[in-house]
Specification:
The complex is a heterodimer of chains A (654) and B (322).
Chain A (H helix, E strand, L loop, with lengths): L2 H18 L9 H12 L4 H7 L3 H30 L9 H36 L7 H23 L24 H29 L12 H33 L12 H35 L6 H14 L15 H13 L1 H17 L6 H24 L1 H7 L3 H31 L5 H27 L16 H31 L29 E2 L6 H4 L6 E2 L8 E5 L6 E6 L6 H15 L5 H17 L15
Antiparallel strand pairs in A: 1-2, 3-4
Chain B lengths: L14 H34 L19 H35 L5 E8 L2 E6 L8 E4 L1 E5 L4 E7 L4 E3 L8 E3 L5 E5 L5 E6 L12 E7 L1 H12 L8 H12 L29 E2 L3 E2 L2 H9 L1 H4 L12 H12 L3
Parallel strand pairs in B: 1-5, 4-10
Antiparallel strand pairs in B: 1-2, 2-3, 5-8, 6-7, 9-10, 11-12
The chains are: A mainly alpha (654), B alpha+beta (322).
Chain lengths: 654, 322
Amino acid sequence: MTELERVRAEDQRLAKERQRIARDGPKLTGAKLEARLERTWRRPPGILGWLATVDHKEIGRRYIITALLFLALGGMLSLAMRLQLAQPDSNLISPQRYNELFTMHGSTMMFLFAVPVMEGVAVFIIPLMLGTRSTAFPRLNAFSYYMYLFGGLLLWVAFLLNIGPDIGWFAYTPLSGPQFSPGKRADIWAQMITFTEVSALAAAVVLICTILKARAPGMTLARMPLFAWAMLVVAVMIVFSMPSIALCSGMLISDRLVGTQFYNHYEHGDALLWQHLFWFFGHPEVYIIFLPATGFVSVITETFCRRPIFAYPVVVLALISTGILAFGLWVHHMFATGLPRVGYSFYTSASMTVAIPTGLQIFCWLATMWDGRPRFQVPMLYVVGFIVTFVIGGLSGVIIASVPLDLQLHDTYFIVAHFHYVLIGGAVFPLLGILTYWFPKITGRMMSETLGKIGFWMLFLGFQLAFFPMHFAGLLGMPRRVYTYPAGLGLELPNLLSTIGAFVVATAVGLFVVNGLYSLYRGAIAPPNPWEASTLEWATTSPPPPYNFAHVPVVDSKTPLWDAEGELPVVTGLRVDEKETLLTTVVAASPDLREPVPAASLWPLILSIAVAVFFISSIFSPWAVLFGSIPCAIAAAAWFWPKELNRNPEPVIT
Amino acid sequence: MSIQHYQSIFGNAATEVRQFNTLFVIFLVVCAVMYVAVIAFLIAGIARRRRAAEANTVEEGRHHESDPAMRTGLIAWGAVVGTGLVALAIASFVADRSMANAAAHEKLSITVTGNQWWWDVQYNAADNSKMVRTANELHLPVGVPVRIMLKSNDVIHSFWVPSLAGKQDLIPGRDTDITITPQKVGIYRGQCAEYCGAEHAKMALVVDVDSYPDFIKWWQHQLQTAPKPTTPLALAGYNYVTSRNCSACHAIAGTPASATVGPDLTHLASRRTLAASMPMSEGNLYGWVADPQSIKPGTKMPTIGLEPNELHAVVAYLETLK
C-alpha cells in the first residue's frame, strides 16, 4: 500500500466514524436530546468541578454576585464618610482613615464593582441573547473572573490589614510616588489595577469574539440586540484604553520598586505624564460603565413599551460615536494644570459633542415610549428614574466641559454630584432595573414587584436627597476629598441632607438585596418568557440548561420572538456527544464553522493563582518578576498542552 | 461680606469671577430649557399611552411601524441640541479668551509655593529689601491686576479662592500662574483643591483685599523685623524659639532663626489664621504649640513635649510678633 492509499483509507474510515456521531436533528430531539445534551454540557461533579467550570452562566453569576458584594462594601465606606461629613469640624474619623475610605470607595466602585458587574451581566446574557451555547474562549472567561476576584481580595485584605491605599482612586504622582507615599499602600493599589486590567482585557476578548462570531444564523449585525452592540463597543474600548493604564501603573510600580524616574521631574520625568495616561484610560472608563447601561435601557424600553427601539441605526451609531469620542476628551480632567489654553478649547468642544449622540439616544428611548404603550413594572420604573436623573448629570457635564466654568467647579462637590448623577443615575439605576428584569432568567424565579417598587422609590428619592445638595456644597466652595470643613461657610445644611439621603439610598439597596434573597427561595416560578419579550434569551427555559438551547435558533428580524409564527426556526446538526457550538460569519451571520467548546478545566484557576502570586510578591521584590514568571509559564504551558495527537473524525477539546 | 460668600463662587469680588458668573448663568438657562424639553417629552409619552388605538406595539401587530412625526422630531432634536452646544461652546470660548487677555497686564507679582500643608507666600520686588515673606495669607490692593506665580515644593496642590478666581494647580517641576484683579474690599477664604495627602482639608488661605493705601501700609509693616521681647516671659520664649527646635524650620526676621522649611513667623500674630486652618487666637496658639499632631494629625510640625513654663514663654513671645 502506498502512502497515498493509506491516507485515503484512513480518510474513509474517519468519514464513516463521523457519520456515526450523534447530532441533534429530527431524529434526536425533545426530551431525549435534552438528556443527552445535559450529560455532555453539565459541569463535572464536586468542588473541583465547581472550580473548573467554564459555563458562561455560572461565571457570569459569580461575576455579578462578587461585584454586588463589592458594591455593598464600597457603599459602607461611603456611609462612614457621610457620617464624618454630617457635621462641620467632626472628629469621628481620623484624616488618614478618611483618605483611605475615599480611596477605597472610588477604587472599589470603579474597578471592582461598576466595570466587572457590566462584564458579568454580559458574560451571562450575551450568549443567550445571541442564541449560542457558550461564549468564545470559555476558559479565558473563567481566568478573567479569577483574576478579578484575586485583585479585589488583594485590595480588601490589605485594607483590613491597615495597609490599604490612601492616594485617591486616581493616584496622582508625585503624591503616589516613592517619596510621598512610603510603605506599600500605593503598590497595593497599583497591583490591584494590574489584576483588573488583565481581567477586563480577557473579558473584552471573550465578548468581542462571542458577539462577532457566535450569533445565531440570520442575526446579521443590523439585527443584533442593542445590548450586544453596546457591549461590542465597550469591549473594543477596553482593548484600547487598558494599555494606557497598564503603562502608567506599570511605570509607577517601577518608579517605586526599582527606582526608575518616570514621574520625577528632578530627573527629567514629569508628574503630569501620569495624568495624561491615567485619564486617557480614565475617561473611556466612564463610558465603559455607561454604555452597557444604555444597552440595559434599550432592552427594558423595548420590552415594556412593546415595540423595538425607535431609529435602531441612530442608536447604534450613537453608541459607536460615543465610544470614539470618549478617547478625545481626557484633557477636560486637566483644565487647571496650566496646559496651553487654546488647546483646551478642543477638549471643551469634544466634551460637549458627546452630548449629541447621548441626546439622540435619549430621544430614541422617549420616542419608543411615545410610540408604544409603556407598562410600568419595576424595570421600566428604573428607566424613567434613569432619564429624570441621568439627564441632570449629562447637563451638568456640559457645564463643566467649559474651561472657565470648570476652573471654578473642578475638584469640588459639584463634580461629586455630577458624576454620581451620571454613574448612579446613568448606570446603577439601569443595572438594578436589568437585574430585576433578568432575575427570572438567572434564577428561575420572579422578584417581588411590591418590594421592588418600594425599593425603587426609596432609591430614587434618597438619591436626589443625597446628591442634589452636593451641587450647592460645591458652589459654596467645598472641595472634594476633604475629611472635614469649617463651620460658617454655609456647608452644614447641604452636607447634613446628603448624609440623610445616603442612608436612605443604603436602605433601598438593602431592600433590593432582601428582595433578591427572598425571591430566590419564595419568588413566583418564572416561565421561559415572563415579560413577553422579543429576544432569544427568552426562548429557553428559566434558568437555561447548561447547553442554553436544545437546537440553535435561527432569526430573521430584530425581534425574533415577536415575529416568529409559532415555533422559532432552528438549525440542527451539532454533535451532542461532545460540546460543540456553531460559529457564523461576522456581518451576515450565515453558518460558518462548527466549533468544539473546551471542557471544564482547573488550569485557568491554577494559572490565575500563579499570576496572583507573581503580582502580589512583586510588590515586595523585583526578583519576584523573574521567579514568579516561572510558575505562570508552567501553568500556561499545561493549559495549552496539545492533548490529542491522533487524527480524530472531528477535533474536540478536552 | 455675608458669611455665605466668604468661600463661594458667587462672591463676585474680582473681574475674573464676574465673567464666570455671567457664563454660568447662560449655561444654566440653556441646560434648564433642555431639561424641561426632555421631561415634557417623557411626560407626554407616558400620558399618551392611555389612547390605546394609536400605539404601534406588538399587541397591535404594528411594532415595526412608527409615528412619522418622530422622524421629524429626531432630526429637529438633533438640530436643537447641536445649535445649543455650538452656542455654549462659543460663549465659553469667548469668555476664556477675554480672561486670558486680561492676564497680560499685571502690576504686582507674588510667588505662592505649595507645601504639605501650607502656603508659602512671597511678594516679589525688584529691590530685594522690599521683598516680603509670609504664609497662608495674601493681601491684595483692590483694582490692581496681580499675577500670582505658583510653585510646589512637594506634591500637586491647587490654588483656589472661589470668590476671586478659578483654580490653578501648583505642580512640582512646572511653573504656572494666575492673574486676579480684585474689585471689592473684603476677606475671602480659599483652600487647596487638589488632594495632596493627609491634611489636604486643612490647607486653607485667607485673602485680604485692601484699599491701596491700606495695602501699602501692610507692606511697610511686613518689611519691619520682629520687635525685641520686652517682658521676661517673652524673653524666655525668644530664647527657646531661637535656640531650640523651632529655629530648625522657622524664620523670624531680625533674630538668628532663619530656616525656610516652615512658615515665616516674623508677623505671625498679625495674621488672621494659624496653621492654615484655624483662627489666630491665644487659645489656638497654645493648642498648636503644645500639640500640633492632635490638632492637625500628620502635619510636619512635631509635638515636642514642652514643659508648661516653656509653653507659656513660647506663646507669650509668639504673641509679640505682630
